[in-house]
Amino acid sequence: MRLPELPVDVVPVPGALPAFHATIAADALSGLCRDALAQNARLVALWGSDETTRGSGYAVHVALAITSGLLWVSVPLSGERPAYPSVADVFPCAGRMQRAASDLLGIRATGAADERPWLRHGAWPEDAYPLRKAFEAATRFAREDDRYAFVRVEGEGVHEIPVGPVHAGTIEPGHFRFSVVGEKVLRLEERLGYAHKGIEKRFEAMTLEQGAKLAGRVSGDSTVAYAWAYAMAAEGAAGTEPPARALALRGVLLELERIANHLGDLGFLGNDVALSFGFFQFWRMKEELLRLQHRLFGHRYLMDAVVPGGVACDLGGREAALLIERLTTVEREASTLKAIYDEHAGAQDRFIMTGQVLPELAEKMGLTGLAGRASGIRHDVRVDHPVRPYVDFPVRMAVHVRGDVAARLSVRFDELFESVRLVQAIVRDLPSGAVRVPVPAPAAGRRGVGWVEGWRGDVLVALDTGEGGRLHRVHTHDPSWQNWPLVERSVLGNIVPDFPLINKSFNLSYSGHDL
Amino acid sequence: MYQLLKQVARTGIVTEPAPGPDEALRELQQRLGAAVLAHFGRSLAVRHVDAGSCNGCELEIHAANGPHYNLERLGIKFVASPRHADLLLVTGPVSRHMEVALRRTYDATPDPKLVVAIGDCGCTGGIFGESYASCGRVSNVIPVDVAVPGCPPPPLEIMRGILTAVSRKPGIR
User: Fold this and answer.
1) Which end of chain A is more exposed for a tag (fewer CB within 10 A), N or C?
2) Do the chains contact at B54 and A286, CB–CB below 8 Å?
């Protein structure tokens, strides 16, 4: 079939989403990306795969968000010298994804401006590729010298501040190289990949069912978003449709995850401007919600609650009433705290015009999710391509245009209130019936996609089944891939002591990015 | 300011009693003498190292510093540098990319020191296991005194782990 917006033959990918798959030649990729960009498409993800066990070579895959839904484009590459023309000139956020695909599979993006390794730090040599099928997962290489060619800023009075991978606070590992004059940041260069623990290779030793647990641990703070995206992909590949009650409960769980994370971040943003009152208030509210989640759904962070075929929990009438009551309290208290934040001159002075990403830059670089909406990027998968329960409970998108810390704070408040409304509405109208159906093991070579708006942004899971119920390839994509480069840009001209605040206002994932 | 003070007064104190130590979490025999433990018990400086976790354990470490658990009231304070630390709180399977950083952090921590591994991954490698990219459990890289299982372990268990690390076995002087 044909899509209205692009001249390419596609086949629908079965499942809950409007998703399409196309196979094109390498020399057509750049042109297709340009056409898509002209139609306001966004790059969602880029990854590679080894198809040598299926009698061909390698492949590079691109997922594009288009008006019709999600377009998954596969480009077969040769087995001897796998290469394709870089698309980073069309979609700048593709750059790091291309470098990762090169590190993991040895497929090269020709003409790319930056060909430094990205996820490979020296745990495996340049000519070994962990995601190739011939690569044994247990292989241990001697550690190589790990030198990374940071871009040097030169001139009088410029000096470098290296930060991480072990940070001063309780956060994930990554390295930040600041070039500063006095306190002013001239350049920030990130180096990620420290948390790379071989997740995608691990999937390939698992069955469709086993993979759900791993998907829920790609990024622990977004366990529901990943588990749902994985389940959606698995159900598509297996041709299963979960019961209506399960879909409604997934919506409840995803919005609760958003509320809990936003509460935590709103507290931290207060803490980072020396308003520790905010930290203690929001974290009190968060803890009370986590305890209720544990009581109602069996896990404080809702891990393993979403499973292929449905959900592994249920919500009785009395429990539903408790949840509605708790969220009414959350809403009331958050309103009080919002008024206190709004009127706190010292806090607002730190928030406003700090770490700004203007809409024009955000659009060019592909800023996504919560941070994107704070910079005027009007995208939210729940609104653009709603699946159940969002079809029946439309989401009111929160948008801001100033793109600073204050805007990201404001979007969090708006989304918190909207999620409270959604959970209460869904819970009041829960369909009856089963919460889980069995998922048969799919045949080999079936594709499935899951695309879910987590609290941070859109999480994608692209899945391809293998022989004997195993997974041939699972790619999980975190919105942090798109947003990390904008953290580099947002701190320019700001002072070093504002970096923790700016970084926290994005609160991006390391584990979800490093895989 | 009035609204802020009103909110503080309305909230009151939510902090709950702290747990006691649990010998079952101990991996290595207590290496520290009574005099050191007496000091550590009153003023323990903790450095957290994420050696490759999924960020789940970090959420619970944050929660342990929140108002319900309030670790700091026990004299347990998180510090910004291993040079200031008495105890390392390590999460994650140790990724091979964090192996060197973890060893260096351990070496930079002055003796006497303690290590508490947090979470199923820190205890056994968890779902990520050992591979080309993962060293698995924390004790594969540095000595671990106390290991706290859980995915992630709730704040009370994390507190219990830290308190176990600075306690002596009952009855032994």
Assistant:
1) N
2) no
